[in-house]
Amino acid sequence: MKSLFILFLLSFTVLNASFTQTTVSVNVQKNSSITINGTTNLLSFRLSQSGDKLTNRNFIVTAVQTKNKIILSQNQHSILVADFTSNNKMALRDFLTLVKSNTYPAFHIQLNYFEIQSNTDNVDFSKGNVSVNLTITGKTKKYNIPINSNHEGDLYTLNGTEKIDIRDFGLVPPIEMMGLIRVNEWINIDFNIICKITSFKASPELNASNVIHSGNSDFSN
Q1: Which of 60, 80, 153, 165 is most solvent-facing, going by the fewest CB within 10 Å?
Q2: Cα gap 24→14, rounded to integer Å
Q3: In whole angstroms, what is the distance from residue 162 CA to residue 76 CA?
Q4: Which residue from 134, 156, 114 is spatially nearest to 36, judged by alpha carbons?
């Protein structure tokens, strides 16, 4: 989870940089989260991963900006399915079965680029989009996800949501109790990311091949 948190927040700090390459120190906060919200014909359910699962939250990251797009060289990331939790144990069990967690233990995300819109009215608030390829159970679909950010001092909060159809990944919504409970094929993936970011002065001599340095890109670390 850690790398996606860093990359999202880094995109907003790069936008206002003087150089095309920017380096920042990032500390991911415990109350960050990724949530999957779904419904059945009878009730709703919620699955989440929180920032308190992170074992190492301090990183130095570098990225390159081309006009209003942020391009990253290390753009492949994974999120472990087993790290999701829920108060609804039945929903969690059915979710792990649905996404075939034994065969496909992780979702894979390719971050294509960030496109940031400047906001001259409020320098503490930014919005934009991130282009991603999401792979679930070996099937890939491209999304363009709206994102927004605000900050107070060096504490940044980033939010976004995307509605996806699980049938796009070859998944069939489960039916429980002889057809009495039917799961909706549409789910919302929400993220609320909170990071403390301290900017470093970017060096013009730095080579663009060193775009990002964040260690292991797996979300579970």
Answers
A1: 153
A2: 9
A3: 19
A4: 134
Delineate the domains of the chain, giving CATH numbers in brackets: 2-200 (2.40.128.110)
Per-position b or e across 175-194, b if 16+ CB within 10 A of its CB: eeeeeeeebeeebebebbbb
Which residues does residue 189 pair with via DSSP β-bridges, in sequence order?
36, 162
pLDDT digits (tens, 9 = 90+) for 109-135: 887 888 877 655 665 667 888 888 999
Element spanning 180, H or E: none
pTM above 0.85, yes or no: no
Give the whole-angstrom CA distance, residue 188 versus residue 161.
7
pLDDT tens for each residue of 72-111? 655 677 788 888 999 999 889 888 999 999 999 989 888 7
Residue 111 vs residues 78, 165, 172, 210: alpha-carbon distances, Å: 11, 20, 26, 17
Separation between Cα atoms, residue 196 and residue 26, nearest integer Å: 6
